[in-house]
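Human: If only I could read backbone structure tokens as easily as an amino acid sequence. Take your time, and here it is.
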Amino acid sequence: MDAKYTYGITSTALQYAGSLLLIPAIVIYLGPKEVGLWYLYLALISFGMLLDLGLQVSFTRIFSLAYSGAKDINKEGLGDVTPGKGPNFELLNNLVACAKSIYLILSGFLFFLLIVLGLTYIKSLVALENMDPMSVYSSWIIFSFYLPIHLYSQWLVPLLQAANKFEASFKYNIVYRLSNVALTLGMLFLGAGLVACVAGLLLSLILARTYANKHLRGQYSDSALNRKEIMILVLKIAPNSLRVALGSLGQFLVLRFTQFLVTLFFGLQAAGSYGLTLQVFLALWHVSKITYHIKLPQIVGLRLRKEKSVIFKIVNKATLIYVIGFFSGTLFLYFFGNTLLQSVGAKTELASSIFWILSLLIFFEGNTSNYQLMITTGNHIPYIKAYILSGIIYACLAYYVAASGFSLFYVLLSQGLVQCAFNYWYWPLYFYRSIDK
């Protein structure tokens, strides 16, 4: 197998498995409230990355256009490309300067939110939960530096990939994930507690950035753009970026907003148990859906050739593998999950009272996402508005349910009701109808 593909597979596996490798150590070395705070941090990472505004996807495309010789970039389409003339380094340098400027502003704004508003909230949480203030404040300060730097770094991988340095882009993620696991485990063993988790993130990011910068030397030159020139480029990038950002917002509201509600209304101990249970179910989803991703290029080709019966056969088989894989894992967790956690001295367990409803929710969220991925093989993304609307309705309804004193079970039930009203059944049906056309 080509080394590039080997690193690609390893990078993808670590993206999903890296945090799972830390679960045994986290539930052993952190108390229940610290685990809850850690999962709040992870939810905040997802929230903070909404400020990317879909720019990483857009920069991946337009950096590639500049390397392909595009004279300029358009709001839509590929633009005017001059064959055989090689990369347009003037355009590339301007785009990199634009990316740095935008991400610097966004990360600065995020840092302000974390230090001013975030620290105020953390202080109130420490007082409410009676936690060690020194440990929590130290971890928050480190986290407040990590997340903006992480956001600012989002232009690195698109530039590596545009420069045809795919192996380096995969290794960037491998260095980041593996060093995070190693550093966090080492610091947890030394008794650093919650600080170990966030310091591991920051130090591993610094190491990964150092590696990426080494491979980016000579790929571009610093270009000084004035505000007007930056705004011209931003206006060309914005339309497609915002579409991606809206889709990310909808997914965040559906999958991650509950973590904030649990912390706010049910306490950090409940948040830790919920976060742990959610994480293992999300891992089951990502492992069980791998067939869809493997078959994606083949299905694109089959759609072009209008081979309906073959498409139906492949997708139905992938769905069967997903169902069997997900529920086999769920049954294993139900019968042995907490027993295994107790055997290693874990201080946090899987949430038994919401185990099955959360399992069903993640299963149907995963199934819907799988079919949405299949829909994109027709070069069409029709589901963003529906997910935005569903996410907003769910967030409002879930907040009302939690604030009214209902249990977490009913908060999750509200998510199921909102999604069952449309998304869970409509998008699988939409895919099969689109193939029949």
Remarks:
- Residues 256-437 form one domain.
- The chain is about 80% helix and 0% strand.
